[in-house]
Amino acid sequence: MISPLASTPLFHIGPAPVTEAVVATWAIMAVLVIGSAAITRRLSLTASKTQAVCELIVDTVDGQIRDTMQLEPGPYRAFIGTVFAFIFVANWSSLVPGVQPPTARLETDAALALLVFIAIIWFGIRAGGVRGYLATFATPSIVMVPLNIIEAVTRTFSLFVRLFGNVMSGVFVVGIVLSLAGLLVPIPLMALDLLIGAVQAYIFAILAMVFISSAIAAPKSSQRTAP
Amino acid sequence: MNWLAFISIICAAVTVSAGAIGPALAEGRAVAAAMDAIARQPESASTISRTLFVGLAMIETMAIYCLVIALLLLFANPLLK
What is the pTM of this model? Predict the structure, then answer.
């Protein structure tokens, strides 16, 4: 049986090996970018059906950001929305025959978690300056600095292991059941897999929001005076 | 059969089974508490279910960690190379 942790390169570009997951990632990126560009090319006040669906999606993302971060969604919409859309499409790309979700590979998830890690620092520094961002490590008290630094690394780690484990285990279970029981038997499991994929995309986005808002909101709470 | 491989396979099975029991109990309690809260306050159902989903994902991560450890033991065991 092929190990779910290893990935075999399809071809090489110079010294860099290109795996199946990378090609799938490029395809998903192309679909998302070209699709978004084509839909937003002709926006009108009287919305067409496609535009209405897209506005609904953007509106939902905005609402979730507002609910979770208690902030105006403007600066965060692009990052959170893109991460959610990419993971959602990537998890559901197993619907296309022959495609394995790129999120079932450790490298893709690690790259996504690294993006979130950088985004936390970026949004934290942009909201409170370098001093303000560093001060968030000293909440609730200065004793917590080592723990907060460890947490910044471990939560990124758990972010990508969570996504990887969920998507990969779905693909893996479907493969095992298919080899044991045969055609059409794993269909209920595949349906469960789609549900898990959607929930994991949502959770990844929610956790990214929670982490970003924890890097932003802390200066305000430290200014709060005791009653 | 190689003893290391034998022990690795047993360890992988034990890891997954033990790692499934704890999160299963915890998720059951979390869902029960959320159901209780929604029954008391149906108007806050959306907030509760969102928090519940995030919490369940957190709990489930523990099981997933155990699965990853088991897969490491089976497929990427450094002692068997």
Answer: 0.84
